[in-house]
Amino acid sequence: MRTPMRLGAFAxxxxxxxxxxxxxxxLTGPAAPxxxxxxxxxxxTAAAGHDGPAAGPAAAAPLPAGLQVTEDGYRLVPxxxxxxxxxxxxxRFRVLGPDGAPxxxxxxxxxxxLHLVVVRRDLAGFRxxxxxxxxxxTWSVPLAVPAPGTYxxxxxxxxxxxxxxxxxxxxxxxxxxxxxxxxxxxARTTTVDGYTVTLAGELTPGTxxxxxxxxxxxxxxxxxxxxxxxxxxxxxxxxDGDLAYLHVHPDxxxxxxxxxxxxxxxxxxxxxxxxxxxxxxxFRHAGTVRTAEFTAVAGKPVPQPxxxxxxxx
Length: 313
Prior knowledge:
Elements: H1 24-28, E1 70-71, E2 74-78, E3 89-96, E4 114-120, E5 127-129, E6 132-133, E7 138-143, E8 149-157, E9 166-174, E10 189-192, E11 195-200, E12 209-217, E13 220-221, E14 234-239, E15 245-248, E16 264-269, E17 275-285, E18 288-298
Antiparallel strand pairs: 1-2, 2-3, 3-7, 4-5, 4-8, 6-7, 8-9, 10-11, 11-12, 12-13, 12-16, 14-15, 14-17, 17-18
């Protein structure tokens, strides 16, 4: 995936769920229509790019990644109208370039031209897959999500000729009986397939600070993590409320002579605001890629107003 992002202020600890979600509909952007029905943005409107000019006082800072279906002239266009549950079904999409034509030239980032991340809007059902592209710029991947609901589909890529990458996001439904689940409570330890992963580090808002994830199995540190996409681990963080997409990579690289293959993998990251985040760590061991999931809270707790005291007249 793309190189480490500037992610904003991050600190693990107790805090309220992201308070700025009132602007969710404005920030997130609607799902793009199927091919052949793309709509042109209304005259006078434009999505704010990473380096674009501010549209006003509220737009002084660039938007976090993944909140827009279009950025810097690039657009994510799903060709499949729904996601499958149960049996995988091809999910197809294109990325249109500033000229309106399908983008066919990409700069590889972490061994792949494009990374596709799919997660339901309640932050459940995370998937990180790598589609293949046809000559006409159509991407396709066999994909099934675990349960019905509305999913956010993120395309993370670097167009050829650009130094920085883009992450575009669009909502795609998985039809059926949608039953949302609450975001799990914050925790420092999680388990997956018999592995225990521990999260350490207190990140300071407004600065890039370390987060370390350590992998063990049956009580013993795992010291032979295997390279996966050119690294010993990949970390994606999504903000509860609007699913702002944050993606970082660890210090060092396999074979650089200084980075051990576990048990600890350290990342440097910033998040864009206080709030609740879901963290997804991909790591490979014994030939299998697994994903460890955490809930973390950034920023200081928001003071809550005290209830009126009616015990005294």
